[in-house]
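Why should sequence recovery work at all? Because a backbone constrains its sequence more than one might expect. Tight turns favour small or flexible residues, buried strands favour hydrophobic ones, and helices have their own preferences. The token representation captures these environments compactly. In the example below, the structure is given first.
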């Protein structure tokens, strides 16, 4: 009888320790699950919209060929600017002053226009009046931003296509003497503003591309023999007379 009672107490003690172990293990499991749940509550860092280039290839001015990367310096009197500044004032058809929310380029007609930022093709529109295309590429990192590429021909992209910086979008609309033109516009749907590209530029590349743009302007003015073509003192950023303006 005593032997059976001792065995019962011994078994109970063993069960008690097993019970305590299960409680401890359960608590550890709950804590680890709680921590995992807490980790899942943290959002991944948002990747910002970043511009990586200006859509064209810059290069030193060759005085023998008058080429500078994708640019060609023509001996044509009515070509006064090879780059149209963001925020420049022009006259509309009714002779009212308006300001352009674009950065404009005149380049060799065979030079490819490359994507300045990542995104997805959101607009693919043929413009009958100018017989060319307007392409919109909305950022996948920050969908508030869309880059517009205007006056393109020989389009190399299609609706819904994912784009990475450096991909060929198309070619400039032909003008004359082997030259073509196109425009870049950076829009933000949330703010309703268009931005100078350097407002959103990759910080590691900003100085490089600003220097390239300013060097091209200096070379152009030297070629034209007129240092007053551009008012560099009015630039808030290279090639930009404003940082931003209302989109239209």
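From this structural description, the recovered sequence reads:
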């Amino acid at each position: 009888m005593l032997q059976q009672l001792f065995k019962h107490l011994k078994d109970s003690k063993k069960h008690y320790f097993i019970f305590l172990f299960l409680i401890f293990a359960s608590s550890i499991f709950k804590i680890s699950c709680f921590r995992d749940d807490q980790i899942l509550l943290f959002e991944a860092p948002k990747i910002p919209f970043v511009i990586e280039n200006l859509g064209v290839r810059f290069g030193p001015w060759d005085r023998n060929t008058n080429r500078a990367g994708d640019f060609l310096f023509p001996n044509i009197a009515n070509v006064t600017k090879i780059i149209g500044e963001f925020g420049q004032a022009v006259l509309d058809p009714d002779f009212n002053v308006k300001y352009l929310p674009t950065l404009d380029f005149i380049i060799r007609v065979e030079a490819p226009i490359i994507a300045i930022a990542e995104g997805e093709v959101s607009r693919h529109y043929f413009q009958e009046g100018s017989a060319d295309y307007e392409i919109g590429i909305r950022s996948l990192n920050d969908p508030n931003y869309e880059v517009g590429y205007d006056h393109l021909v020989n389009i190399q992209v299609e609706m819904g296509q994912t784009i990475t910086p450096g991909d060929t979008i198309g070619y400039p609309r032909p003008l004359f003497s082997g030259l073509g033109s196109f425009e870049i516009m950076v829009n933000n749907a949330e703010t309703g503003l268009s931005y100078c590209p350097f407002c959103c530029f990759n910080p590691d590349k900003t100085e490089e591309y600003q220097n390239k743009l300013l060097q091209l302007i200096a070379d152009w003015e030297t070629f034209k023999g007129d240092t007053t073509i551009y008012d560099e003192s009015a630039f808030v950023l290279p090639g930009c007379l404003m940082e931003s303006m209302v989109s239209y």
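A few observations help interpret the result. The chain has two helices and 15 strands.
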